Task: inverse folding
């Protein structure tokens, strides 16, 4: 392959690579919130500055690398070394540091008093999400966060196992979830959409299977959604779903999972009250449908190594199908 063909092939690939990295549901360079916009600005200023400095260095290297008379001024060379090697970096880095420090406080400050508060707990390997509603009730769900557009939100973050890092690139920076401590992150979503979040700190075997979805919606839609989440689970409407519920309760699933409105009240695993309405299963690992639910019940460890949920591969296939039908109907 000659150089021209290589260039012709490489240019679109590199351009596509850059473009694909700059947009999308999980890009810090496609901000959907005030905090992410600040971070993106910092990135672009630093990238632009680095390119300008790089061009200057290359130009100087070229200029001084060319053949020249030994008699050319030594004083000028000395000044060049002091100027570009000492003065220039000190001035540029000091300016960048001052600007960066000025940008920091809004990124780490708390949301105003009375803002919507969402508690997120890092688990191995999923996210426990709790809404503290004004009437004092708590709504718990998993791996999914819904937020109203145009209002600040306070996240209260913790972990009772290992250190995780909570990150929604489109909305803001990362924040560690540290056992024994509560950390805070405030975001202010500025446009609606569905964005992806992930754990940004290695936390064990299935760290990479620890994702979540953030849906930013209009305030009215948010209130409707929260109202529905507050409701107990719907009664199963078909004989198959009824069988599924009975099998689930008889198999001891309720020791770990809660389905509000039934006697399943376990707290160590995700709350399943409205699991059928979620965007994915197992923290972004599987699509949310009956077949995936059944696969998950039979062998969760195949899809998520190290998962704490036991496999139910001894279960009768009909029972598993019924449980999947019941869970899918919990919308
Ligand atoms: Cu949790 Cu990585």
Result:
């Amino acid at each position: 392959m000659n150089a021209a063909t290589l260039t012709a092939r490489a240019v679109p690939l590199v351009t596509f690579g850059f473009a694909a990295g700059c947009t999308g549901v999980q890009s810090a360079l496609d901000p959907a919130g005030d905090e992410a916009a600040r971070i993106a600005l910092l990135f672009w200023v630093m990238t632009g500055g680095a390119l300008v400095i790089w061009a200057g260095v290359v130009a100087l290297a070229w200029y001084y690398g060319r053949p020249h008379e030994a008699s050319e001024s030594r004083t000028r060379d000395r000044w060049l070394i002091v100027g570009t090697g000492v003065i220039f970096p000190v001035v540029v880095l000091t300016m960048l540091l001052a600007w960066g420090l000025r940008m920091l406080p809004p990124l780490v400050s708390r949301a105003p008093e009375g803002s919507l508060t969402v508690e997120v707990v890092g688990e191995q390997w999923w996210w426990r999400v709790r809404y503290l509603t004004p009437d004092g009730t708590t709504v718990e769900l998993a791996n999914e966060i819904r937020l109203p557009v145009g209002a600040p939100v306070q996240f209260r973050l913790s972990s009772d196992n290992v250190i995780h890092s909570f990150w929604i690139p489109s909305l803001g920076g990362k924040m560690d979830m540290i056992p024994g401590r509560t950390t805070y992150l405030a975001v202010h979503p500025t446009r609606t959409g569905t964005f992806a979040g992930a754990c940004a700190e290695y936390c064990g075997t299935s760290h990479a299977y620890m994702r979540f979805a953030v849906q930013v919606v209009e305030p009215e839609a948010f209130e409707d959604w929260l109202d529905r989440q507050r409701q107990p689970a719907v009664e199963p409407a078909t004989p198959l779903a009824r069988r599924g519920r009975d099998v689930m309760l008889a198999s001891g699933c309720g020791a770990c999972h809660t389905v509000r409105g039934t006697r399943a009240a376990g707290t160590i695993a995700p709350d399943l009250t409205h699991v059928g309405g979620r965007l994915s299963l197992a923290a972004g690992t599987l699509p949310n449908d009956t077949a995936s639910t059944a696969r998950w019940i039979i062998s969760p460890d195949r899809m998520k190594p190290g998962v704490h949920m036991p496999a139910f591969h001894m279960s009768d296939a009909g029972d598993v199908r019924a449980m999947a039908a019941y869970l899918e109907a919990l919308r």
About this structure: The radius of gyration is 27 Å. Helices lie at 3-22, 34-65, 74-108, 219-230, 239-250, 290-298, 300-303, 317-329. The chain is about 40% helix and 20% strand.
